[in-house]
Write a structure and sequence with these properties.
This protein is α+β, with helices and mostly antiparallel strands. Among the domains are: 89 residues, Alpha-Beta Plaits (2-Layer Sandwich); 100 residues, Alpha-Beta Plaits. The protein has a 6-stranded mixed β-sheet, with helices on one face. The chain is globular and about 70 Å long.
C-alpha cells in the first residue's frame, strides 16, 4: 500500500511540474553531425535488436570504421557517417533488413514530415495483367492498390521478356502488404492480380503487415477475444445494439478512412453505420473505393514512366528460401 501511494504521489508531482526547457545554445544541440546521419526504426523489435543492428549493419553496408551507431530507444537508432557518399549509397539500396525483418531508414532532418519513419519506397512486381489491360494507366491503377505510385518501369516500344511489371510505390507500413487483388475482365469472371515485394523478407501471414509475426498478430488476438465473448454472451435480438464502431481497429492499427478530413470522416462513419454486418462491410468497401478513385484521379497526371526496366531491382523472397536463410544468420538488403 505504501509503495502504491508513493507512486501515485510521484505521478501527481510529475504532472504538476513544468516541462524542462534547455538553453538555446549550440552546446545543447547536435546539428553538424546530424547532417551526415540516418535515423532508423525496427519494424519488429520483438525479433530485432537495436544493439545488434548497430553492430551488424556497418559490415553489411561495407562502411565499417566509417560510421558509428547510437541506440535511441527500443526500436529507434541513428547512424552517423563520416562520408556523404557512404550515406547516399545506403539510402539508394533501401529497403534493408535485419534478422529477416525490414528496417526503416531516413536521412536526418530538423523538420521531419508527418510520415517520417512510417513509410518506405518499395519496388513491387505486378503479375497476371490481362493483355486487354496492358496499358500504363492500368499498371498505375494496379500499383495504386499497394501504395502511392512513384514510378512505373515500362517501355511500350521494346519487347518485354518478363512476366511481370515493376513499379516503385511509397508504402505505408500501417497497411497490409497485400499479395493479390481480384480484377474483373470483359469476358466475365475475374482474374487474380499478384503482387510481389522486392527486398522484403517477412510479413505476418494473417494480416500481411510488416510489423509482427502471425503468432503475435493483434488482429488474431482481437478475433479470439470477440469469439470468446460471443460464446459467453446471450443471443442478440434482431434490431438490438449494433457491433462496435469499426474505427476502433485492433491495437496498433490505424482508424478507418484516415485520408479524409474530420468532417468528411464523420459523414463516412455515419454512412457505414448499419445493423446488418454484410451491408455495413459493403458500405465500408464503397467508401474505400471512392477514396482510392479520388486519389488516383488527382495523382494520375503525376505518373512517371521509366524505360529502365531493371532500375533498383532487388530479390523477391519466397517462404522456402526464407526458411533456408534462417539457418545462415542475419540477412541484409
Amino acid at each position: 500500500m505504501a509503495d502504491l501511494l508513493q507512486k501515485a504521489i510521484q505521478a501527481m508531482s510529475l504532472e504538476e511540474e513544468e516541462p524542462l526547457t534547455l538553453p538555446d545554445s549550440p552546446r545543447f544541440r547536435v546539428i553538424d553531425e546530424n547532417q551526415l546521419s540516418l535515423l532508423g526504426r525496427l519494424l519488429n523489435p520483438d525479433c530485432q535488436s537495436v544493439s545488434r543492428v548497430i553492430e551488424y549493419m556497418p559490415t553489411a553496408w561495407r562502411v565499417y570504421g566509417r560510421v558509428r551507431g547510437l541506440a535511441l530507444s527500443r526500436d529507434r537508432f541513428q547512424f552517423v557517417f563520416q562520408r556523404e557518399e557512404d550515406l547516399l549509397t545506403v539510402l539508394k539500396d533501401r529497403p534493408w533488413s535485419y534478422n529477416h525483418w525490414t528496417l526503416l531508414l531516413e536521412r536526418w532532418t530538423p523538420n521531419p514530415p508527418q510520415d517520417f519513419l512510417r513509410s518506405l519506397d518499395i519496388w513491387i512486381r505486378i503479375r497476371n495483367i490481362p493483355a486487354i489491360f496492358f496499358t500504363e494507366e492500368t499498371m498505375f491503377k494496379l500499383a495504386s492498390e499497394v501504395g502511392k505510385v512513384e514510378e512505373v518501369a515500362y517501355d511500350p516500344k521494346v519487347s518485354h521478356t518478363k512476366e511481370y511489371i515493376r513499379a516503385l510505390v511509397h508504402f505505408d507500413i500501417d497497411k497490409p502488404a497485400k499479395a493479390a487483388r481480384k480484377l474483373n475482365v470483359p469476358e466475365g469472371g475475374t482474374v487474380t492480380i499478384g503482387f510481389e515485394y522486392e527486398k522484403i523478407h517477412k510479413r505476418c501471414f494473417h494480416c500481411l503487415r510488416l510489423t509482427h509475426e502471425k503468432i503475435k498478430c493483434p488482429m488474431l488476438r482481437r478475433e479470439s477475444v470477440r469469439d470468446n465473448r460471443t460464446l459467453g454472451a446471450p443471443r442478440m435480438q434482431q434490431g438490438g445494439p449494433s457491433i462496435a464502431d469499426p474505427s476502433n481497429g485492433p491495437p496498433g492499427f490505424p482508424v478507418l478512412f484516415p485520408e479524409l478530413s474530420k468532417e468528411d470522416r464523420k459523414m463516412a462513419m455515419l454512412y457505414i453505420s448499419h445493423a446488418d454486418e454484410t451491408e455495413r462491410m459493403a458500405r465500408i468497401e464503397r467508401v474505400k473505393q471512392g477514396i482510392e478513385e479520388s486519389k488516383a484521379a488527382s495523382s494520375m497526371h503525376m505518373m512517371r514512366i521509366t524505360k529502365e526496366l531493371d532500375k533498383g531491382k532487388g530479390h523477391v523472397f519466397s517462404y522456402t528460401e526464407l526458411l533456408e536463410a534462417q539457418h545462415r544468420g542475419p540477412a541484409s538488403s
